[in-house]
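_Backbone structure tokens_
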Amino acid sequence: MEEASYDELEPENYQRITEAIGDANPVLDIGCGEGKLANFLAMTLGKEVRGIDISSSKLVKACQAAEAQRVSHLVQFIEVDASRLDFLVDGSFGAVVSVYTLHELDDAHKALKELRRVLGTKGKLVVVDFIKGGKAEMLWGERYYTPEEIESMLREAGFSRANIEHLRDDVVFVSSVKI
């Protein structure tokens, strides 16, 4: 399996994310990279989005894309680690989204607790990620989690029972709510 084949899931991912977050606003995009999802949510739904990532070079591209798509008034990109969101006010987001990022976090437990903190009452969390034992693990050899481990981490962080769907044999779509 080639890396590019995961890009084929992007339209389905974005549609599912749009449905899962509904009218929640603003949105925090964790590991936003070059801002594709953040800019999509701003452009198609008029969402206010903050995208965070640890890569300054990707964030430069995200800002350029926002300018080109004329949504820079709705999006803001910040270089920061997801486990260090102390500059954000408690309960300030209606939804948090994370696409192919959970496995990249140095301390996923701490980051999930921070994400819960910045979510408002009944705030929505959506995670799309590769899972342990799948093709992505063979490709990249990174640390991935089983669906059960993801659900356990979310529960420990204070989220409701996670709804987990397989998009492919090694990609899951997880939605949960702050309790």
Summary: Residues 56-68 form the longest helix (13 residues). Strands lie at 27-30, 49-53, 75-79, 93-99, 119-130, 163-168, 171-177.
